[in-house]
Design goal:
Distance between the termini: 23 Å
Number of domains: 1
Oligomer: single chain
Radius of gyration: 16 Å
CATH class: Alpha Beta
Strand order of the largest sheet: 1-2-3-4-5-6-7-8
Order of helices and strands: HEHEEHEHHEHEHEHEH
Largest sheet: 8 strands, parallel, barrel
CATH superfamily: Aldolase class I
């Protein structure tokens, strides 16, 4: 895969709780240098100062990382992030609701955020695939589609169950067909891993070690 094509599939991610403003500024500069699609940050870091003429998109997370926020809170957080310059929102579902089989509640949660940030804002729904069985992954993907999401996304990268796997991406692709896009994130630390996720059906990757992955090496552990 051409380096430039791989770069354009990356959301360069900086979500460390201990991150300082200078760290965020460094992440933005690195994202610009590498030619990735977007930079993904915590909503408290917005607005970002992008260079004049930049085509870099800005992604903010919502309900992150637990998903255990009231839908109204997630909706307000997403709406404010867009007002502060976010082009895309990556929201976390209530994983416990999914595990309980309360898929209607998951769909309602997503609908609340979608209503707060309508198109053209891109809405990605983080399902924590490593914590779900295949049947539940399919059900949650269906809820995301019914609620009007643009993407389903594997993971926050913070859950102890783990991050993205090729198997989960394949299950998600079968569930949504070509109707939704898929973002793989969490534990993708090498170019081999990244390309495997894309072959499995992902079209976007959440990476914190973008430079190392693009160089063909292995990045550090993290989101």
């Amino acid at each position: 895969m051409a380096r430039a094509d791989l770069a354009r599939a990356i959301d360069h991610t900086f979500l460390k709780p201990e991150g300082r403003r200078e760290d965020v500024e460094r992440a933005v500069a690195e994202a610009e240098e590498l030619g990735v699609y977007s930079v993904c940050v915590s909503p408290s870091e917005l607005p970002l100062a992008l260079p004049a003429g930049s085509v870099l998109q800005v992604t903010a997370v919502c309900g992150f990382p637990s998903g255990k926020h009231r839908s109204a809170v997630k909706a307000a957080e997403a709406e404010f992030a867009v007002a502060q310059g976010a082009d895309e929102i990556d929201m976390v579902i209530d994983v416990g609701a999914a595990l309980d089989g309360r898929i209607d509640a998951v769909e309602a949660d997503i609908r609340a955020v979608r209503a707060a940030v309508p198109a053209p804002t891109v809405l990605k729904v983080i399902i924590e695939s490593a914590a779900l069985d295949d049947e539940t992954i399919v059900a949650v993907c269906g809820a995301a589609e019914a609620a009007g999401a643009d993407f389903v996304k594997t993971s926050t990268g913070f859950h102890p169950a783990g991050g993205a796997t090729v198997h989960a991406v394949e299950v998600m692709r079968r569930a949504v067909g070509d109707r939704l896009a898929i973002k793989a994130s969490g534990g993708i630390r090498s170019r081999e891993d990244a390309e495997a996720m894309l072959r499995a059906g992902a079209s976007r990757l959440g990476l914190s070690s973008s430079r190392a992955v693009l160089a063909g090496g292995a990045g550090s552990a993290g989101y």
